[in-house]
């Protein structure tokens, strides 16, 4: 069963992560001329931070690192990923965070309680860029195809309809409570299935919206 993490617990971790990102910004700009801004996404952005009650996997955050200018680099996905990995590794030296791990669609860092053998919290950084900001219908994210050992920027569309539905729900009394409860229920149902928090959030919004406006 999942439980919500209190803001008083996760807010300092969020601030700590953003300090790390700002240090990476400096390193990437000074070494490579690459500039980026960042955006908290997923459950953390919506104050729906969860973890398994009594579990050992902790809670997590998701950030987009959004490339603005590549400087010396071209859009060579492998070089960009390796450069971010190196910058993060350097920034994390001497901290409680483990060295960054190159996952399929992100770079992952985490803090582990070794005595209790459990993850306290982790963070995934996805590297993205917008090819046409005027259209704003999607973005390219850096993906590591581990089976083929190929790095590439892959297009992902944005579903703006979810936000419109969420706004309609929030216009009703107790709307946010309905989304919050449905999201936690879906987390429980999908425990261990590997579904991303943003997918479950979209599903929760759709479920609540359909119950409110189509029944």
Written overview of the protein:
- The chain is α+β, with helices and mostly antiparallel strands and 215 residues long.
- It has 6 helices and 9 strands.
- Strands 2, 4, 5, 6, 7, 8 and 9 form a 7-stranded mixed sheet that branches. It has a two-stranded antiparallel ribbon with strand order 1-3.
- Strand 8 (138-145) and strand 9 form a beta hairpin.
- Helix 4 (160-170) crosses helix 6 (197-213).
- The radius of gyration is 18 Å and the shape is globular.
- The model has no long low-confidence stretch (mean pLDDT 90).
Describe what is shown at a glance:
By secondary structure, the protein is an alpha+beta fold.
Label this structure with key terms.
9 strands, two-stranded antiparallel ribbon, single chain, seven-stranded mixed β-sheet, alpha+beta, 215 residues, 41% helix, 6 helices, globular
- Which structural class best describes the helix and strand composition? alpha+beta
Question: Termini distance?
Answer: 29 Å
Oligomer kind: single chain
Low-pLDDT segments, ≥5 res: none
Radius of gyration: 18 Å
Question: What sort of overall outline do the alpha carbons produce when their principal axes are compared?
Answer: globular
**Roughly what percent helix?**
40-55%
